[in-house]
Fold this protein.
Amino acid sequence: MAMSVRLLGAIALVSLGIAGCGPTAARPTEKTEQQDGVRLVPLDIRTAKGTVHYKVEVAITPQEQSRGLMYRTSLPDHGGMIFPMTPPRPASFWMKNTYIPLDMIFIRPDGTIARIAANTIPENLEPVDSGEPVSAVLEIIGGGAAANGIAKGDKVSWKTPA
């Protein structure tokens, strides 16, 4: 059973095409923070109503990217996880072993939001696709995008840890 779970995880990672890291834009004066051993970086989304500030985890290693937000039972309102992708490419995520609804925000290489998949269904195995090549995917609490006025075309920037 453990072998099949690891094999399934490896297949999922390959099928998602998630590897490497690269920021869209950085705020050089901001520093990476640690919270419970997790790297947190500032992430801003410029919306029509103003800038929304987040502190997010960065999934850099293949293991971090494969696990994502699986097994979490909560997520802060202005927290989440970003999955940087270099080079940009079409992305596809699923909700296996993810117990909370998430908004998946697909980010183009220029930092603009290409698509928002709102309130994805916990533990659903149906792929959620980016619809176009992206340089990152941001996962936040389900309903967070609508609650904060985040929309397609808004600009996302973050600092990737050194």
Summary: The radius of gyration is 15 Å.
